[in-house]
Amino acid sequence: MGTTLSFKKEIMSVSKWNESGMVPFISGISILQNTLESKLEAGDSANVGFGTVDTIYPYTEQNIYTRAITQEAVEVVHLENDYLKATFIPGLGGRLWSLYDKVARRQLLYVNDVIRPSNLAVRNAWVSGGVEWNIGVIGHSPYTCDQLFVGVVEVEGMEVLRMYEYERIRKVTYQMDFFLPEDSKFLMCRMRIVNPNKEEVPMYWWSNMAVPELEKGRLVVDANSAYTNKAGSVYKVGVPIVEGVDISRPKQIPNSVDYFFDIAKERRKYITQLDESGYGMIQTSTSRLQGRKLFVWGQTKGSSRWQSYLTQQAGPYIEIQAGLAKTQYGCLPMEAESTWEWLEGYGAIQVESTLVQGDWYTLRKAVGDALEDSLKAKDLEVYLEETRESIALLPAHLVQTGSVFGAIENRRRKIALESPLSIHLDFGIVAKKNEWVQLLTKGTLGRTWADEKRTISYMADETYFRLLQRAVEKKDKDNSYTWYQLGLIYLVRKQIDEGIACFKQAQDLEVHPFIKHALAVAHSLKEERTLATTYSIEAIWLMPNNKGLVKDCIGILMACEAYGPLLEVCEALPAQIKQNTRVKISRAHAHAQLGQIEEAKALLKSEDGWIEVEDIREGDAFTSTLWEGIASTIEGKQEENTLPDALDFRAIL
Fold first, then answer.
1. What is the pLDDT averaged over residues 267-274?
2. Which of 87, 270, 480, 517 could be joined to 509 by an S-S link, Cβ 3.0–4.6 Å?
3. What percent of the residues of the chain are helix, what percent strand, and what percent coil, each to the nearest 5?
4. Are residues 389 and 482 in the same domain?
5. Please, which residues have CB within 8 angstroms of residue 302's CB and are 6 or more apart in sequence?
6. DSSP assignments along 506-532, one per residue
7. Considering only 168-172, 285-289, 492-496, which range has the smallest mean pLDDT?
8. Cα–chain-centroid distance for residue 447?
């Protein structure tokens, strides 16, 4: 049939996932890897702690979603030949949603039966399944639930699917070129990151593959040791046996854990999980993608809860991953004005079934030999070089646009007499009335709070910081909105007093809930709880229908232990906001802290069952801690005090 590329809309079970909150995400993010301490030997740092960030600003938080499922038309892209059918969802960061082996008539990936966002990514929203592409900061990509630019490259009769974006924290471009030659049994994924800056930047990339958790599945990777962490410390272990557990059998691992495999430089870079028959999906790459990882949820009640929470009937999964660095505990330094490229291959692998449950090293050799027979390592390296000019540097016919920020950056670079971002990538044209273009060209943001219909966006770059400082001295000295934007940059730079001064100046000019919210965040950072509480409540009163603002302010009230004021302000919220599960669980916690146990219990369980908090954070034991506090006051049978499974998200015991 040859190779075909097609764009379609398919009906899927979804919760709306790509809506962002309008308030800036300045109150910090929770990333486990940011808090780890290295216990490694000298010279084996694995870059622990390098490139961590305290906030995902200037991105906004994606926390406007529910767990309600509807049937929606979702834009997908199919790339297909006689051997494989790959399905991508550009609106989910370009995620490879499925990879179907047409010869074996089997799915190679774990394919979720719903698109159901949950709070696991750096901007909050994340969904499980398929292959996720992560760039920039430790954790998940800022674009994991965003629409990417999509284009098609014509290459000697073959159509190449291109998806790309401009990443705003590292200020780099990244492009992903996906192609499936007519005779290929591997989906080819050619990746390219360009650092156009005159300074080094921390860089992070991990391709996260979800595969089914199999009762007798066997993990294979060409490594003899791995990095892991426990109780906040990073250390190294021999594999496959770790503390008496054979981690090559993921189903046997009791708790949620990561293992980052230390593959020797000269060894083949691949990872796979095989089923009992010796069949599975294998991922391999050129040498730059040096890291490989196993993630399991484990076998606790909380692990099972997470697995069911993220899907409907698709069942449990594990993740096998591939990254630039050895681990996800830190980034790599990417040189100024440099380009990093690599090629990934995804396909099926088959070895003798009798080997699967036997000696791991014998199995490992069989997998390596089978992979080399299917796709030679040296051929992959040659293919990477050959496709630089023939694919990677060719322009694409644009099919779908992404964010406006690449175009804004190109405008800034033109004014500064700098070369544009990757010239073969079309970032579109930004409107002259865009506030950041106005600031670049006219020294004013050209907008006020009254421009309600215009989307609010944020900037953190030094250029805009300097321009905002000048603007409030001249053209925008009486513009509350400009003072607010300047204050935000001070805040994320940890110049809190300067930020507060800007917010107060903004407030003197005009009262607005976003200014109140920013003051609440600023004073909470200074641990000035009374002021943080006051400003949070005032912000909610001014805009009680804004779910993102209300949830963020309630989070501040919780942190300030302002339980009485929290309950008081919640009573006056509109019904739709008041019944939001994050708001309800916060109310339950406040009641419990005030000794109002029956009121707390009533919020946790209704006629429809136990509450399901749509945005409970990965690693957060909030619901179990809340229940334990309530149970300690209950007199009765032991089973009545037992933590309900629906509230148990503890993946480590």
1. 98
2. 480
3. 30, 25, 40
4. no
5. 624, 648, 649, 650, 651, 652, 653
6. HHHH---HHHHHHHHHHHHHTT-HHHH
7. 492-496
8. 31
User: Which secondary-structure segment (H or E) carries 626?
Assistant: helix 622-631
Q: How many CB atoms within 10 Å of residue 516?
A: 24
What is the number of domains present in the chain? 2
Please answer whether residues 111 and 130 qualify as being in contact, where contact means their C-beta atoms are separated by less than 8 angstroms. Answer: yes
Residue 132 maps to a domain:
yes
Residue 633 belongs to a domain: no
**CATH number of residue 505's parent domain:** 1.25.40.10
Residue that is last in its domain, among 601, 617, 633: 617
Quote the domain boundaries for residue 603.
433-617
| Same domain? 450 vs 370 | no
Looking at the domain assignment, is residue 48 inside a domain? yes
The 3-state secondary structure of 277-310, one letter per residue = CCEEEEEEECCCCCEEEEEECCCCHHHHHHHHHC
Per the CB < 8 A criterion, the answer to whether 391 and 314 are in contact is no
Phi-psi region of 125 (alpha: psi -120 to 50; beta: other; left: phi over 0): beta
Q: Is the pLDDT of residue 47 over 90?
A: no
Measured CA angle at 326 (ends 322, 331), to 5 deg:
95
CA distances from 329 to 36, 243, 323 (A): 7, 22, 12
Model confidence band, residue 34 (pLDDT cutoffs 50, 70, 90): low
What is the average pLDDT score of the chain? 94
Please give the Cα distance from 604 to 610 (Å, whole number): 6
pLDDT > 90 fraction of the chain, expressed in percent and rounded: 84
Residues 498 and 363 in one domain: no
**What six digits make up the tokens of 392?**
């990677």
**How far, in Å, CA of 282 to CA of 349, rounded?**
6
Q: Which of 399, 425, 459 is the last residue of a domain?
A: 399
Please give, one letter per residue, the 3-state secondary structure of 369-402. HHHHHHCCHHHHHHHHHHHHHHHHCCCCEEEECC
Co-location of 257 and 340 in the same domain: yes
The residues pairing with 260 across neighbouring beta strands, listed in sequence order, are 227, 293
What phi and psi values does residue 579 have, to the nearest 5 degrees?
-90, 0
Q: What is the pLDDT of residues 2-33, one digit of tens each?
A: 899 999 999 999 998 767 778 898 876 555 55
Tell me the CA end-to-end span of the chain in Å, nearest whole number: 52
Question: Does 49 reside within a domain?
Answer: yes
Show the CA angle centred on residue 368, arms to residues 367 and 372, nearest 5°: 115
Q: Does 582 lie in the same domain as 469?
A: yes
**One-letter amino acid identity for 382?**
V
Taking the alpha carbons of 341, 228, 275, 208 in that order, is the dihedral positive or negative? negative
Closest to 138 measured CA to CA, from 325, 402, 338: 325
181 & 242 share domain? yes
333: which residues sit within 8 A by CB, 6+ positions away? 50, 200, 201, 202, 203
Same domain, 329 and 478: no
**pLDDT surpassing 70 at residue 141:** yes
Give 323-353 pLDDT, tens digit per residue: 999 999 999 999 999 999 999 999 999 999 9
CATH number, domain of 207, equals 2.70.98.10
Regarding pTM above 0.90, the answer is yes
User: Could you give phi then psi for residue 192, rounded to 5 degrees?
Assistant: -150, 125
Q: Are residues 473 and 354 both part of a single domain?
A: no
